[in-house]
Amino acid sequence: MTLTETPSGVRRHGPRVAALLTLTPLLRLAVVRHAVPPESPHRAACDACGTPIRLDRPWPVLGPTARCGGCGTRVGPPPATVELATLAAVAVLVLLGPPVAVLVATAWWLAFAVPLVLVDVAVHRLPDRLTWPAAAGTWLGLGVAALTGPGPGPWLRATAAGLGLAVFFAASTLAFGARGFGLGDAKLAVSVGLLLGWYGWALPVTGLLLALTLSALGALVLLATRRARWTSHLPFGPYLVLGAVGALLLVR
After folding, report:
1. What are phi and psi for residue 49, nearest 5 degrees?
2. For the chain, how many structural domains are there in total?
3. 178 exposure class (CB count in 10 Å sphere: 0-12, 13-18, 19+)
4. Residue 103 CA neighbour count, 13 Å, CB half
5. Residue 88 belongs to what domain range?
6. Of 162, 134, 145, 156, which Cα lies nearest the Cα of 102?
7. Would residue 1 count as lying in a domain?
8. pTM, 2 dp
9. What is the DSSP letter of 44?
10. What are the average pLDDT values for consecutive 10-residue runs of the chain, which has 252 residues?
């Protein structure tokens, strides 16, 4: 796209971007609710003052400022984090382009991937209430894409890739325990494998290699800055999502 074409591109995609950004309170609510330690009840109110957090009164706590309307305490991810992540997800969808049915399945996955990344960064867990709907919706969306497009072949391959990637992560958990990947990573891997497997057998491998490479680089940075130790457990979910997005952009 040339510089002269950029304004028209902005006008064409501007309404869609604005519409998708209206979903950010829902995404931020998902992060706030699920960014709690394992076995803890979902967060329904401000930890500091007890002000309820609800979609019928999203501002300011579920807005870009991420501040409680009662006491002003920050709640959930840092200000504008969810909004920037949503913009990045929209950019991925714009770059991928049609076919529409596959795009809808990808949008569904990204809608869950954004809060999953932020929850994993905050509390090192990938809750079932986000991983399983991400996998189920992606699988069904790709099934619709198969019915309206190339037939069952890509969908069956995607299903096999999703299960295969999940088995890989689950096996590492059983083999290495706390030193391996978590079961949450295995559940997230189902939707990642589904989405990448639609495009061929090579892409799930590419996504996994990208995720492992990014994870290694991130760990080295944290070690060099003394923000982590060799024994620290680091979340892998964000790298798995980034690896999947990077692999998707390779097929554009």
Report:
1. -125, -10
2. 1
3. exposed
4. 12
5. 6-250
6. 145
7. no
8. 0.92
9. -
10. 40 58 90 94 96 94 95 96 94 91 96 98 96 98 96 97 97 83 96 98 97 96 88 91 97 79
